[in-house]
Amino acid sequence: MIGKTLSHYKVIEKIGQGGMGEVYRAEDTNLSREVAIKVLPEQFTQDPQRLARFEREAKLLASLNHPNIAAIYGLEEADGVRFLALELVPGETLQERVAKGPLPVEEALEVCRQIAEGLEAAHEKGVIHRDLKPANVKVTPEGKVKILDFGLAKAFEGETPVTDISQSPTLTEGMTRAGVILGTAAYMSPEQAMGKSVDKRADIWAFGAVLYELLTGKRAFEGETIAETIAAVLKSEPDWGKLPRDTPWRIKELLDDCLQKEARDRFHDISHTRIQIKKALEEPATVSPIGQTLAGQPGRWRQTITLGVVALAGAAIGVAIWSLMSPPLAPPAPLKQLVIQLPSTAPLEIETWRPAVALSPDGTLLVYVANRGGKRQLYLRRMDRLEATPIPGTEGGHSPFFSPDGQSVGFFVGYKLKKVSVSGGAPQTLAIVPPVTRGATWGPDDTIIFTADPNEGLSRISTVGNTLPPDAFSDTPSIPLLGQVLTTPDPTKGEYSHRWPHFLPGGKAVLFTIDTGGSFDEARIAVLSLETGKVNVVLDGGTNARYSPTGHIVFARAGALLAVPFDLERLERTGNPVIVIEGILMEPGGAAHFSFSDDGFLSYVPGGMLVPDRKLVWVNRQGEIDPLPAEAREYIHPSLSPDGQQVAVTIREGSNYDVWILDVARGTLTRLTSHPGEDLSPIWTPDGKQVTFMSEMSGR
User: Fold this and answer.
1) Catalytic residue among 131, 203, 658, 679
2) Are the beta carbons of 130 and 123 closer than 8 angstroms?
3) Residue 268, domain member (yes or no)
4) 454 and 327, same structural domain?
5) Residue 426 falls inside a structural domain
6) Domain endpoint, select from 241, 264, 282
7) Are 19 and 167 in contact (CB under 8 A)?
């Protein structure tokens, strides 16, 4: 074909091939311009009925004239070859662009604004694209967006399936005919996937899928096969937690409205998306404003949310207070923000694994961990007062949590679990525990459930006389001082520990985090029934789950808080997660610094994901520092080999600690150990041939 002249088009080179035919770059010798020609498949041109239908559609498509739509110049025939003459668009497709990673939010929105304008112009003429996807959109070097192959999915019929899901073809014939599927699997609407009659709302769905992919770098609906992808389209929801933190709230709502399973619940006109994108580009990205909705949970999180934001700044602490409870018909209150100066002598103390703030059940008291003269102590801030005061007897305390009546605070110090009255008095020791606890929660039956060890499950004690509750569901014996064991991690399921427990309303079940040995963004949220002992995994990907009075579980992931609807009776989630607020202080050990009150207030420490990366350095006798050629990681316990050429060092990744070897000259790291657990304190043997280290390979 290359070098041939078809009519007045001289074929120069082949530039593409797909289910709709081969595409070539050619020169229009009559008009002295370059064009693209799409040669129709031979089996297509030999079917008179299909060809006649295609000609009718091509005439309609050629009438489209818009700067964001690649033009169709005409349907030609020469030397027995049928082909379309098309506008040749320079630049790369969105598929090529997103293969390099997600687009910056503003760039993605500008691209999709232009896509929406092109779709709007076509829809006004009754033309539906039917196969909108990243591969069918190009961006020129000047930033102009061009939609390719507009409407050709309807014009073609009977293509051969392919295995690449991103290029899965239009299948069989017209979208307007029941029982027929057209489009590309990863971007087709549910009604399209089921072969139902469709309209322009199928393009709106595909538009949402494309925007999601540009923002996240991932497809909204994925599967290893076309069948699995279609199943995801029909049954699954996108992972809203993958959206960038700076995604404007309007865009989160837009995506939700575009990707509704039922066509009648979707935007009915693409102009709505164009308007929302225009507004989003004109205003800063913020949390959802008062009375607005949050993307991803139609009918559940979509209730009026009265927000009162309080930022406690100046001493490395911020607390935002969100009121999530309001009468259904109450008018939305304006956003309120108040800055409270903490004592300069008692700034917030943030430590690995240890929550730093606790809000009382009635929302009137805030307890935080302060650094007082280089030593920890709990401080109490009453919301109706201006000052924060130290709680006597809590020196060295950490991980505070309130009793259900809000009159006492539980905390850990050294090897002890204690409680203290907020009204004063000496703390009382409740249990002897290791100094490595991972969270605690106080139930309405005056029991406390906590994680005594980072490699263990949940335990329970009584705050009254240290006796077990009468309704213990397990035959597990009481462990003196440590309480009763409620759960044990199952290594066959990839469980490393159970931590961050939180009583659900009624005290009959407890939320907790299952540590899987890696990043806590990949941990699991589970619920334990205290009546049956049954554990049910609620969701994958998150930590520090808390229950909100709105009927949601709120949890942390990647420095953001997400919410998912939850049924208290069935102890299972009833929807998919959405981002509630971003910029929550969270550290790699899994602790997220936020707390709920029973009346719907959320307190949190802002700051995002804490990344305590460190550099390995040489230090000479004069104290001069020379960095080693190794990337910043969370290094612990470095040990230099006898010949000075290697460093054995523990690197922490989430809750996992492994020993690595650094080649000093090359700056390369090689993993020495690899398993969920803690491998610590490497030491070289005198001959430099072996490394000894502490390990918990048994998981104990």
Assistant:
1) 131
2) no
3) yes
4) yes
5) yes
6) 282
7) yes
